Amino acid sequence: MLCVATIQSKNSRGHKYWYIVESRRVNGKPRPIVLEYLGKAETLLRRLQQGIGERLKVKSHSHGAVAALLVVARKLDVVAVINRHIHSRRSYWPEKPLRNNLTAGITLLLAAIGRVCMPTSKRGWWTWAQGASCEYLLRTSLSKLDSQHFWDLMDCLPEDAIEKVELELLRNLQQQYGLADDTLFYDTTNFYTFVDTDNIRCDLPQRGKNKQKRHDLRQVGLALVVTRQDFIPLLHHTYKGNTSDSTVFRQVVGRIKRRMEDLDMDLEKHTLVFDRGCNSKKNLALVARLKLHYAGALTPSHHMDLIEDAETNFSPTEIGDKTLSLYRDRRTIWGEERTVVVFISEKLKAGQLRGVYQGLKKRKLALGKIQRSLANPRARKRTRERLTERIDNLLKGQFMKDLLTYDLSELGDGRFSLTYKTNKEKLDQLEDRLGFRILMTDRHQWRTEEIVAAFYGQSTVEQAFKNIKNPYHLAITPEFHWTDQKIRVHYFSCVLGYLLASLIWKEARTKVGFKGTLDTLFDTLNDIRLSTLLEMSGKRGKPKATRQIEEMTDDQKCLLEGLNLADVHKKPLKIKGVSVYN
Predict the structure, then answer these.
(1) Is the pTM above the cut of 0.85?
(2) pLDDT grade for 539, boundaries at 50, 70 and 90
(3) Among positive and negative, which fits the CA dihedral 555, 561, 566, 568?
(4) From edge to edge, which strands make up the β-sheet containing 183-192?
């Protein structure tokens, strides 16, 4: 027998209410069974007029990058490792404090994830997180993560614990991903800050030669060691902004050796590559005592005898798909025998010449201005000593010595005339001497092309610095901290973010064949979105929610499946130490 649902009304307190009713037999007798309450007639009419679209709401969150970072962090056990080293310095707090039901470990991880996806201030972190899926993936509320939350829990990571945390994470990385590499690259950079000049609560920010040309601001230095193959950061060191590269290298090279030993790296098989800014007689003697193999560069102007020998003994050598004129020899330099390779880099020479001609143009304009002011009949009286000092200071600069000559003639009564010209002979000699590179190594058995390739691999760490200066992903700035401990923890969280991002990049290249840059990878992952469909029933309580990945491009789909992220949103990510210290 077919049961047909009908619409029936029921009067209650002077109002007529409508129901969808079906007749069913209960204990052998027909009884009306209410299938759906429809409400009063005007309510039913409003629902019919609105249609199904008005009863549905859709939210959308950036998902791919956050999911990938959380999955890698879970593999490395990042939160639990950090939590093991947390120790509050505040007497009125427990040793391992919670804030807003979150541990210090998950707080620092979330700071690192924010740095990778969208660098912003700690105050602006929640504004970004509202548009991302991390709160849903962790199944915990993050709405109270303000700047004070981050500051309080950052304060609980001792400075001397940062190196221990980094080592534990790298050991976990070895187990999960491996560290197959034979060459490590070392370099330094600096980042300007907005720490006030009168702030005496910190020593790290100091004025120095800023690589972003912000010489008016205090800066903090960062030294980094990365692997050649996958750009994995093995060690970082935060230092005072006014410390020279040579001094920093002397401070950190012992730590580099310890890190290699702690990770069971074979010192005989690994080579440390660094640039000429790290060189000094003391530093290379220290490297020799530590029994580290190395490849580096020398400053040509300090070894002119080697340059002169090379100029008459160049021989063509195939390096990859290029033919370079090279000179190779074994020389005793600073008391140690080293293999040296001399060649001319056309790219370097072009850049140096461009700088020379720009410098000449700038100084000629300045000399012309002085010349015109001296020729002005109303010019004030001057002394030869003052004028000579001013012009000599103007002509200082790299490669500028003797390129411009001038004559200052006294006209009497404090009046002078100035003439100047370019020394063409000196300029021609300089053009012949520019572009030289001198490479050195203690790997005497290496072929010449291996030495050149190792040195040019230095671009690996330079690329790492470009990545962490990218304003859209991974940037260390903005850096709104003004105590040394907070600055060190901030740099640690940024390097942690870069470590996680490098592993995702490695996975994308090996599993998916991804060819793009790290920046392109995270742009693509950020565009993978998780949509939430909310069905508004009109009843009390939470609306029914259905979540699914939005339509993707072929590249996005390939990354999502290749990185095993397609089903991450279907169940909570179980990460140890999110709301309790295990």
Answers:
(1) no
(2) low
(3) negative
(4) 233-240, 219-227, 183-192, 271-273, 293-298, 436-441, 336-344, 322-333, 315-319
Q: Which helix (H) or strand (E) holds 249?
A: helix 245-262
CB 550 within 8 A of CB 529: yes
- What CATH number should be reported for the domain whose range is 161-298+444-486? 3.30.420.10
- Residue 510 carries which DSSP code? I
CA pair distance 500, 493, nearest whole angstrom: 11
Q: Which tokens sit at 228?
A: 């050649």
Q: What does the CA dihedral 151, 157, 159, 161 come to, rounded to 10 degrees?
A: -160
Q: How far is CA 518 from CA 218, 474, 475, 521, in A?
A: 29, 10, 13, 5
Task: Transcribe 95-161 into DSSP letters.
Answer: SS--BTTB-HHHHHHHHHHHHHH----STTHHHHHTTBSHHHHHTS--TT--HHHHHHHHTTS-GGG
**By the 8 A CB rule, do 99 and 149 touch?**
yes
Q: How far apart are CA 112 and CA 478, in angstroms?
A: 13
Round to whole Å and give the CA distance between 158 and 181.
Answer: 31
The single-letter DSSP state of residue 281 is H
The secondary structure of the chain in percent helix, strand, coil, rounded to multiples of 5, reads 40, 25, 35
The residue type of 371 is Q
In the DSSP assignment, the letter for residue 419 is E
Radius of gyration of the chain from its Cα atoms, rounded to whole angstroms: 34
Cβ distance 449 to 314 under 8 Å?
A: no
Identify the DSSP state of 1: -
For residue 454, how many other CB atoms are within 10 A of its CB?
22
Rounded Cα distance between 232 and 184, Å, is 10
Q: 543: which residues sit within 8 A by CB, 6+ positions away?
A: 57, 534, 535, 536, 537
User: What average pLDDT is seen over the chain?
Assistant: 87
Please give the Cα distance from 293 to 316 (Å, whole number). 27
Task: Read off the tokens for 34.
Answer: 């209410």
**Where are the chain's structural domains?**
6-54, 161-298+444-486, 348-433
CA distances from 242 to 159, 199, 296 (A): 20, 16, 23
Instruction: Provide the strand spans (E) within 413-537.
Output: 415-422, 436-441, 529-535
Upstream peptide bond of 30 is cis (omega within 30 degrees of 0): no
Nearest to 168 by CA among 261, 266, 76, 270: 76
Residues 7, 37: contact at Cβ < 8 Å? Answer: no
Give residue-wise pLDDT tens across range 253-288. Answer: 999 999 999 999 999 999 999 988 888 889 999 999
Report pLDDT for 474. Answer: 82
- Return the higher-pLDDT residue of 307 and 289: 289
CB-CB contact of 189 with 222 (8 Å): yes
Q: Cα torsion at 342, 348, 349, 352 (round to 10°)?
A: -130
Amino acid at 259: R
Give dist(CA 325, CA 343) in Å, integer. 6
Residue positions counted in the chain? 582
User: Do 582 and 105 contact (CB within 8 A), yes or no?
Assistant: no
Residue 188 DSSP class: E
Alpha-carbon distance of 46 to 528, in angstroms, equals 36
